[in-house]
Structures are given as C-alpha cells and as structure tokens.
Amino acid sequence: MLQEFKDFIAKGNVMDMAVGIIIGAAFTAIVKSMVGDLINPIIGLFLGGVDFTNLFVVLSGGGPYDSLAAARDAGAAVFAYGAFVMAVINFLIIAFVVFMLVRYVNKVKSLAEKPDDVAPEVPTGPSEIDLLVEIRDALKK
Questions:
Q1: Distance CA 38, CA 136 (A)
Q2: Domain ranges of the chain
Q3: Which of the four pLDDT bands, split at 50, 70 and 90, describes residue 35?
C-alpha cells in the first residue's frame, strides 16, 4: 500500500496539480490585493466614496456600528453584502486572468504541435528523361 501511494504521488499529474494549487493560492493573494487596494478605491471614487467592504446590514445584536469589523466583534448578526460584492469582483478578475492564461497556453501548444511548414511543390516541367523520350520519338517519325 505504501508503494502504491509513492507511485501515485510520483505521477506527473499529481505533482502538476500540487504546483497549480500553490501558485493559485499565491495568485489569489495578488488578486485580492489588486481588488482591495487598486480597484475598490477607483470604484468607490465613482460611487461617491463608498467602501464595499463596509457595506452591511445588522440583522440582530444591537445598534449601529461604524464598521463591519466592529459589528462582528460585538457579536452582532450581520448581512455583509459588501464582502459578497468583493468576492464576486475577485472571482471575475481571477476567472478572466485564468481564461487569458489558458487561451495563451493553448495557442502556444497549437503552434508547437503544428508541423513544420514544408515548401509547396512547384511544377518544374518535364524531366530530362521526358524530354529525351520526346526527342527520340520525334526523330523516329
């Protein structure tokens, strides 16, 4: 059983998947930073200074809170729709970047699989043998 597990781990697909997961986690952190630090402020600027991360509705547990973190610290039940909007924006950006990456990889693969361009055959006319046969036949007449 241990040998089977070693064989399974040693397969290329498992290693490729592990690398993909690790890079995906790092990529997710980059996208979260891009959305939180770059895109949100621009969207907030156009929407009059709205910060999506602090958009919430208190369902139960007290009065008004200044931020979502304060409401959660107080133990209030909150409907944090701003965090959901941020998650959707993160997903869309990640999905678009992955789409572009896969599209580029597929393009490179198709170019690599394409056979080398072979020069098309150019009709060169009759060969020497064909010409000699024609001359011989003409002389026989």
A1: 85
A2: 2-113
A3: confident
pTM above 0.70, yes or no: no
Q: Which of 86, 55, 85 is nearest to 71 (CA)?
A: 55
pLDDT in tens, 2-20: 888 777 767 767 777 888 8
Give the torsion sign (CA, 72, 77, 79, 84): positive
> In which residue are the tokens 């060169």 written?
124
pLDDT for residue 119: 62
Check residue 54 and report its DSSP letter: G
Which CATH homologous superfamily contains domain 2-113?
Large-conductance mechanosensitive channel, MscL; domain 1 (1.10.1200.120)
Measure CA 57 to chain center.
34
Residue 30: Cβ-neighbour burial (10 angstroms; 0-12, 13-18, 19+): exposed
Spatial distance between the Cα atoms of 50 and 36, rounded to a whole number of angstroms: 13
User: Nearest-CA neighbor of 58 among 74, 39, 47?
Assistant: 74
Residue 111, both tokens: 């170019």
